[in-house]
Amino acid sequence: MTKKWLNAFALVLAAVAVGLVAFKNYRGAKEGQLLNVSYDPTREVYQEINAKFIAQYEAEAGHRVAIEQSHGGSSRQARAVADGLAADVVTLALPSDIEGLSKRGLIALNWKDRFPHRSQPYTSTIVFVVRKTNPKQIKDWPDLIGPDVTVITPDPKTSGNGKLSLLAAWGSVIHRGGNEDQARDFVTKLYQHVPILGQGARDSTTTFALAKEGDVHLTWENEALREVGDSKGELEVVYPPVSILAEPSVTWVDANVEKHKSAAASKAYLVYLFTDAAQEIFAKDGYRPTNEAILKKYQDRLPKIDLFPVTLVAKDWADAQTKFFGENGIFETIHIAQSK
Q1: CB of 124 within 8 A of CB of 40?
Q2: Phi, psi of 305 (to 5 degrees)
Q3: Which of 25, 197, 212, 232 gets the most CB atoms within 10 Å of its CB?
Q4: Residue 86: which pLDDT band, with cuts at 50, 70 and 90?
């Protein structure tokens, strides 16, 4: 499969996603109906959680609520909400994606204080997926820039997975005592091994697992477990010795729940994400629940790994967004240089 074909394939997927966003935006939300705008690989976990929550909510509130889902690259989803996508709740990959909506006045400034663990029902990280028997012997970040290694990862401009992959690669150098010049050099070389940047995590999964492009896929831990589970033994997960602590976050969209009269149901829905029932579902599906007892129960599926916080590479998530992914940020300067 050629790079040209892959780019065309990515454009088709992007067009479909845009159409779905437009459709949802047109319909808006209705009383008794919630729209959860989430990031790319969470489709399956929220389908399961939604079914459990709907049954419980109906029993407790005495009336039914329907929940629709919208998925795509996290940053792209945040921009869609900012442009009018009628989300009642957002469950996005990065705190900075929600911060952007807060700065626009759509979400209250104190949103992180609404739920436990700074409104993070679970954490995650970035791991590697490789072909059966790992023929290129990819075990750690430096192996990604080895001879003839092709890396599949999403676009940091649109995808939370893409952002976290870059931050994890950069931080792997800093974590081991390297400086920022060395980190920049490593990340620059890494993107020279990336033939295509997908719009989101699931887009890159399709490229790697179905189109069979690339030697290694940098992806969410939960997506890696699902991808390998679906591969019938053709793929394997590799845990690098160190990676980034990802902190997906949730909240309701104040401006929209007021219009839709959906505040009570939206808040109940998000509270449910922190219950033992939902935490079990998250863990089973490869997310690291914030409930320590449940995380320990699933330690064989979610092994301990050295995870560094975003503060290793930036002041906080907002600073990381500006430093790495803003206008004239690190990724843009690297990407523009490689495009010439």
Answers
A1: no
A2: -145, 150
A3: 197
A4: very high
